[in-house]
Design a protein that fits this description.
The structure holds two protein chains of two kinds. Chain A contains 19 helices and seven strands. Chain A is mainly α. Among the domains of chain B are: 71 residues, Immunoglobulin-like (Sandwich); 132 residues, TonB-dependent receptor, plug domain (Ferric Hydroxamate Uptake Protein, Chain A, domain 1), CATH 2.170.130. Helices cover 8% and strands 46% of the residues of chain B. Chain B contains twelve helices and 49 strands. In chain B, the strands form ten sheets. Chain B has a 22-stranded antiparallel beta barrel. In chain B, strands 10-15-16-13-14 form a five-stranded mixed sheet, with no helix packed on it. Chain B has a four-stranded antiparallel sheet with strand order 3-2-5-6, with no helix packed on it. The chains are: A mainly alpha, B mainly beta. At the A-B interface, helix 1, helix 2, strand 1, helix 3 and helix 5 of A face strand 25, strand 26, strand 30 and strand 31 of B.
Chain lengths: 498, 1010
Amino acid sequence: MKSLNNVMLLLAVILIWSCNDAIDIQQPGRLGAEEAFQSAADLEQGILGVYNEFDVTQEIQFNAVFTDEISIGFDNGGQGLGNGEYGFILNAGSNAPTALWINQYDALNAANRLIEAAVQITPEADEQAAYNNALGEAYALRAFAHFQLLSYFSPDYADDSALAAILLDFVPTVDQQLPRATNAEFYALIESDLNQAANLLTVESSATFVSQDFVTALRARIAAYRGNYGQAATFSQELIDKYPLANRAEYEAMFLDAINTEIIFKLERTINDDYDGQGSTGSGTAGGWAGANFAFVDGTIDGSPYFEMGRSLFNQIDPADIRFDVNINNTSIISPDYQSAADFRNEDILVIGKYFGNEKPLLNDLKVFIASEMLLIRAEAYADAGNFNGASNSTAALLKQLRDARFGADTALPTFANEAEAFGAILDERRLELAFEGHRWKDLKRIGARGNRAIDRDPLDCAVNGACNLPVDDFRFTMPIPLVELNANNNIQQNPGY
Amino acid sequence: MKSKLAYMLAPLLVLCMSFSFAQERTISGNVTDQSGMPLPGVSVIIVGTQTGTQTDFDGNYSINASPGQNLRFSYLGQKTVTRLVGSSSNIDVRMEEDAEALEEVVVQGYRTATKETSSISSQTITSATIENRPNANLVQTLSGQVAGLNITAATGQPGAAPNVVLRGQGSITGNNEPLYIIDGIPVDANAFRSLNPNDIDSFSVLRDAGATAIYGNRGANGVIIIKTRQGGYNQGLQINYTGITSFSTLQDNKYDLMDSQEQLQLERQLGRGRGSILSEAEIAAAPTFDWSNFFFDTGVTQNHTLNMSSGAENINQFTSLGYFEQEGILSDSDLKRFNIRSNINGKSSNDKFNYGLSLGINYSESNEPNNVGGSGINRNYILGAYQSVPYITADDYTNGADLLSPLSFANTPLFLLDRLRTFTRQEDEVQLLGSLNASYKITPSLTANVVLSSEFRDEIRTTAEGPESFNALLFAQGKDPSGTQFQQSTRQFSYNQVTSLNWAKVFGKHSLDIGVYTEYFKAHFQEFGYTQEGLDPKTFAPGDGSAFIGDNPDNDFYVDSVNANILDSGLFSYFGSLDYDYDTKYGFAATLRRDASYRFSGSNRWGTFWSLAGRWNIHNESFMDGSIFNILKLRASYGTTGNQNIANTGTPGIYFDAPDRTRDLFATGTGYGAANALFLSQIGNSTLQWETITTANLGFDFEMFNSRVRGTLEGYIRTTTDLYLESPISAINAVTELNTNSGELENRGVDFTLNYDVFRGQDFNLTLSAVGNFNEQEIIDLPTEDGTVIDGGLTALREGGRLDEYYTYRYAGVNPANGNLLFLTADGNVTENPDVDNDRVFLNSNRAPDWNGSFSLQADYKGWFTTVQMNYAFGVDRYDFDLSGFQSPDNVGQFRTTRDLLRAWTPDNRVTDIPALNATNRALGGSSDRYLRDADFMRLRFATIGYSFPAKALEGTGFSKVSIFANGENLLTFTKWRGFDVETLNATNVTQSRLYPTPRTFSIGFELGF
């Protein structure tokens, strides 16, 4: 028994000595932030992480549901209704502003980490090009994220003194509560980032990665939003010259992700990536397959479309237009006389076709910049300059050029009595051309008044909740700063109306 | 093994018959006390029978017994002695004094005390009120039995862990589950699925800091100490068999749902769904199919336990075999379990060395449907059971492919019927529980102890969606064949070691007990799994890989995903305890513990937790002589405990959750275009630490009128500081919440237990009991400037409020003018168009009860016995979104609705509680408080009635005990709640509906002893 006594004592001694193995535990497979980036190759791997933070399905979803692109589908299980955006309900707790805000800052945080890490890395000579390109991509993506924030949270794109969002060009600490910066400060940083990117990027054109063309396209869009139509004309023309409009077959193939004729930049989506799956259906949080913003299963009538194409939009599309084929799935049931249908919802089923899916149903690349947008920006610049009529170098000429391509036939040259008609026609064309690509709400906000256009829902579509129209000067054409930020940040200012 | 088991279970009757042929003879002898003086009046009983006698004035006895039988000698104040009848006809016994025999032992965690000398707040539940209940999870059985312990079912899934909260939720985002210790082995709430409740001897619930501070940063949510049954020394073989069969059914609802005719008529009226195209005659002829009867069915449970115990001079053992099979009331949910337990205790002949080994081997297999509570009409069986339209019948089903087109929501029951046939989700678990304790008395006052214990759990979870199922075809996404199989293998091993030295000494009226301890805990977790896309229907069998389809060069449809994960965790502590008593009148106890957790090794390594407790045994004072009190004790304690289980995600479990939240981490993995990328994965908090709960406790223990009235009354204040919270941080950090220690929370309340022996006699006994807890919660401090944490949900937090407080705009009825819904603005003005953000107000209510507990009655008359237990909970408010669905006019045409809609507003029926079916603002109702309902209840939780055959009737049969009983659970509920089960609640998503309700269960059983 004495030996037992000793064993006990020994055990106690061993325990005191060996206690640290129970406390100092390094979990396997962890990579500390300090060791993450050490070489140019790490930056190249890191930039793939930065790209991965970018998603525009929230834009696609919100612009479609809040405005007049969709209607409630026959297989709707409450999506968009209740507190949903289809009722023009938008507040600090809404999903869309929350997701848009968070996503851009996720992306900015990632880009800043990469940019700051790059400073610490001295690339070998044979790594210099890769190093430069990765850094250039980071700057360009940072500019893009900042502009996304501005376009949803700034009350007026053209007003330099209006507030945008929080400017973030550094890696923040968790205790920082930053106020919003002005549009002027945003535009300045964006320009400086784009200049940096233009100096660094080694890639001229690339459909799925940031290139010099991406920088130009972003500059064109910014200039148009800002009302700097001179610049907008220059930048957009540069790309119009470079990217021809697709013919009808090419146009169809482009939305099946088979070819990239007009694609200046799109976010690649593929099987087994982080976005391969049904996201948050019917909610501004979106994510996942782009097509799952409108249907649960696939892009046909049997794919359970919970949102269908709005009747008013449908009424605008000529069946001879290739955009009819692309935007409306051929399994749709089109009521010959929808206004007198007994059961409108079940007799007029307009299945949205734009995100039919390529590798899988509903899985499509997300188009960010396409040539036709550049053409329409150029058309705006002409209209702004008063050149809206005429067979060449005019709004009318460009609209005809676009319609000719989409119809595959000669179309009539439009004529406009005044600037408002020209802007109205541009808005109408953008509505068709950029349908379900996340533009409509922003377009109505910035030039709706100038073109005398507003949200246009068919009375039968909006009977479900009585939300038929909303003036373009309504406060809900600026998003609220989301509650998640208000809760955390005492220096943030809410937008008017919320 | 298998044949042996069959032998043990089957021929019990044969076995006992053989006993009765044995020969009897007269045994006689003399019984003395330790000093050799004859002891008169000692009870001598043949173990397992009612046959007995007493010693005479000279300590002599004689009795007729058979060789192989045991004689038990018992006398007040002496240790009971059992002797085996052998060849000799003379058995003399020398008995020894038993100092503790008069007093119940009180479990105090690492040490024990007597009822008189205990200064802590605890309550012990013995096997008498646990055994033979039909619940697969023994924790569920405790519901209502312990004051302050609020147990609510999370689901009706057999074996699932219930929600357990002691004295109010003390943590918001951290884990709230008490520390469970089974025979020295720390386990989590998931350990109980595989355990046999009939092996349990006692549960002790430690409540105040005096009891729990010694558990340091594991003790904050209370400690439940579970002891399994043990054999006794010097005791012949006792065999006990219990068999129970139970029948479970769905509880009733009060939704008043429509039949097919009413449903179709309403559809016709609204021009939606099948009713809009049927003629009157067709509607009249439509069948009404009750889908709740289809998805829910009577579940049969079988429960067999066989145990054997015996003991010799220096060794005893308890062995138990259990088999349990329970069908859940929901189709495809069940649990099968097989248990073996072996507990062995031994000692040296000089009593200096004692050891015990406790071993449990458990295997369980369960089918557990997933997606319960979700809104997937193709996933959640509960949704199908409740909401399916009654005019579609099971006969409408052909196969999964036929449901693809047209894809209609109304086919919900058929989607789910298909899923029942084609979907498998099964969990197999092996659990080994083992502990070894040993103690050695180095000197009469100094003892060295060690407890080594471990738990091993290995689970394989298989989920398979057959290739021809509706869901596989629907989401085939180009795959042909489709189908998915997912398997995850999880292994968890934990090891705990407590080494201690205890010194105890009595100096006259003073007694002192000091202990010093070290505790070491280490746990390892490993999991791996795969998801196989594509199964060939010709060779598909759930869990098997024959049907796997390989990747091919044409597409990436059949690329499988794989995963693996390793986590480790550990704790190290040293601590001490000091107990002092003066003349069993006054006493105090102090504990001090230093604790280190692996979670905070980078931030706050060591925590110190302590407690002080004191008592005054007033009844031992001379001035109490002749008072009505047999016992009157005043106790007070104050101290701190910690909660290092700062996350509550469920997987990988409390040991491994949030292992290194102090660090900023990057990760590699899927990035843009599915390429391998490098990205930020975690923002750390370098100041993270445990939550601290400080408890002040004041209590009285009393027994009055010859102990006819017994009870405990105590009040407590539990304050959680450094409350673990998701503090909002600016989105610029790529996260919007950071785990911080930044709030303060207080729970204040009263626990009471009261027992009253109304009748106490030879033939008839009747005891009434009441158990209760009142708890009030207040959030003292939140990390935001304005003292609120509000997100988009229906609940929010505010200083001065309670957890999960409902926060939304208020519903105010139906506008008689137009049938629209009316709401209140934040200022209380009536509006049809509330601002869904700014009109929200705090509603002063949540889902936690203010009052909960039980009333019970126990009675026996001759051989008859009965127990009735009524549980209650008051102050509970919950959302009834099932009702919301049933009352939604938008569901008409797709789902089933309630007859309530028949009284909807119309121009002719303006004063009503149901808005017009086409009210333009009806969509706003759902997130108002319209469906927030009173969920108070009073429930006949348990009732049993049984009969034990008297010893006389059993004479010569070989049985020492035969009893039969019938019992019921959830027999009757009084509540305003209209749903199937007022109790079932998802604690982490308090507004979730469509949950798996707990059943009503009837059981019959019998118990045989040999």
